[in-house]
Amino acid sequence: MSGPSFAQTEASAVSAKVRHATALQTSPGGVWLSIEDNMRNVMDAVKRADWSAISGYAGLMKADLSALQAAGIEGEVKPHEQEQLLKSFSQLETAIDELVAVSAGTDVAAIQAAVTKVSGAATLTRIDVPMGLLEKISGATVRAEIINTPALQKDIETTVTLRLKSAISGKPLVSSDLKEIRTKPVHALIADPQLEDYKHVHPEEIDVPGEYTLSITPKTACTYRLWADVTPVKGQQEYAMVDIPGQEGCGSLTIDKSEKLEVKTADYAATLSLPEEGLKMAGDSVLKLSLVNSEGSVVENLEPLMGAYAHMVGFYDDFRTITHLYPIGAEPVTEADRGRGDLSFHFNPEKAGFVKIFLQVRTGGQEHIFPFGVTVQE
Asked: In 3-state terms, what secondary structure has residue 322?
């Protein structure tokens, strides 16, 4: 038996000057992240003594585990690895069932004991997953890990160490293994669970092969998610997901899904215009941006930013799927070139849902970020 095909969408060229990529994480790797997300939600619920919420999160974990089991692993791993992994799946399933059963009652000690058992079973299951299995089934070739990094604290600058390696061989990926895209080999796209705090940074390679460091100052103490936007020399563009642990999980916090097409700051007003028919899944849409200064005039001094005059990064409300958009038209050739604030972006959404889009521009040597909210219809 073989599992279904889980493909991660590659970057596709809309034109010679426009790149658009969507990371669809409907893969075993994405399913496992969902299990880990809901494990954090369970732990958060325990801290809040919100016992009624636990069974719901446990139910989601059970559904994800069932999807993972249905993916099929025969032929993908060695017989003894398959036996151990199936045993781990079974133990985790039993632990989740026990948690669902006791969470309906009022025995706090029993609930806490069941949560501890599920957490332990989930940890052991992840250890038993053979290296590269989830990525192999999903088609990914890059694995990202966070190491030697303290838990994130609100408003405290933290140095994060990112490790990149081949998901199949385990070989560290140094910068020479990656193509330089938009002036950098690695783009780290980072967001909190509520999609309120966005950061686009470029990790610096260090002396340890495959390891890179970056610094962020989070606005919350939540666990943040990092998408490493990389393109292997012998491969296609990928978004390798990994979480940066915070002092709090925050997975149960909700995302504000309100449409937001205008953003004003003290210096600028940014307006995003959608097609008259709205945004449709699998439809090739054009998003038009108007960026004006405090006097109402179109900005004419957009500075080069990673090889373009602007960037847009969109995060879906599933907290897994992202899209990276670049302006249509001429791009800067030298650092002295300047662009106007009337730009257009191709957007070809491959799934429906709410998308939080962050516009990033630079003027006067300062970067500015404008958050928009849009909904893609089926």
From this structure: strand
- Strands annotated E in the chain: 12-15, 18-23, 142-147, 158-166, 187-191, 198-201, 204-205, 211-216, 224-230, 238-244, 262-264, 268-273, 279-280, 285-293, 311-316, 322-325, 342-347, 353-363, 366-377
Percent of the chain with pLDDT over 90: 56
- Cα distance between residue 277 and residue 285, in whole Å: 10
Long-range pairs, 262-267, Cβ under 8 A, ≥24: 263/359, 263/370, 263/371, 263/372, 265/368, 265/370, 266/294, 267/293, 267/294, 267/368
Burial of 113 (0-12, 13-18, 19+ CB in 10 A): middle
The crossing angle, in degrees rounded to 10, of helices 28-48 and 108-128 is: 160
> Which of 26-35, 43-52, 209-218, 311-320 is the least confident region?
26-35
Question: Measuring CA to CA, which residue among 309, 176, 162 is closest to residue 244?
Answer: 162
SS3 content of the chain, % helix, strand, coil (to 5): 25, 35, 40
Q: What is the CA radius of gyration of the chain?
A: 22
The mean pLDDT of 231-253, rounded to a whole number, is: 86
Q: How many CA atoms lie within 13 A of 133 on its CB side?
A: 24
Give, in degrees to the nearest 5, the angle at Cα 124 between 122 and 126: 70
pLDDT at 139 over 90: no
Would the CATH topology of 139-244 be identical to that of 255-377? yes
How do residues 294-350 score in pLDDT, each as one tens digit?
Answer: 999 999 999 999 999 999 999 999 888 899 999 999 999 999 999 999 999 999 998
Architecture of domain 28-135: Up-down Bundle (1.20)
Q: Which letter does DSSP use for residue 308 in this model?
A: B
CATH of domain 255-377: 2.60.40.1930
CA angle 107, 109, 110 (to 5 degrees): 65
How many DSSP H helices and E strands does the chain contain? Answer: 5, 19
pTM: 0.75
Residues making up the chain, counted from first to last: 378
CATH number belonging to domain 139-244: 2.60.40.1930
